[in-house]
Amino acid sequence: QVQLVESGGGLVQAGGSLRLSCAASGSIFRVNAMGWYRQAPGKQRELVATITSGGSTNYADSMQGRFTISRDNAKNTVYLQMNSLKPEDTAVYYCNLVKSDWRGRESAYWGQGTQVTVSS
Question: In 3-state terms, what secondary structure has residue 87?
Fold first, then answer.
């Protein structure tokens, strides 16, 4: 029903920057929010940032202002600008979308992830 494709990951040195993109396609209507999560080897998946359909944003405390989430509704795309990257940011980054059906019930969808590796 909904497909999410992440791009922009790669290898970067500590202190560098990357910009991730997530393009949504399919039944992309009644979207409530989109966001980014990440999962490092051997660790739980954790929230990075979210943005609602109204433009409200939320960030994990560990990002400490280094990351910025934004969206382009016309292109059905959400972005994650990552600055001052640290080796601890190394993880697979996943795009997430939450939408409602006609009953108002929410469902979540996930992309396949993009690898971000930060070298020291």
Answer: helix
CA dihedral of residues 61, 87, 37, 9 (deg, nearest 10): 140
Q: What is the pLDDT of residues 47-78, one digit of tens each?
A: 999 999 999 999 999 887 899 999 998 888 99
User: Between residues 27 and 14, which one has the greater pLDDT?
Assistant: 14
Distances (CA, A) of 67 to 2, 36, 64: 26, 11, 8
Tokens encoding 4: 């999410």
C-alpha pair distances (Å), 31 with each of 39, 62, 96, 111, 120:
24, 27, 11, 15, 38
CA atoms within 13 A on the CB side of 28: 19
**Cα dihedral 5, 36, 107, 113 sign:** positive
Angstrom distance (rounded) from CA 57 to CA 10: 25
For 25, 55, 61, 87, 96, the CA distances from 73, given in Å and listed in that order, are 12, 10, 26, 32, 15
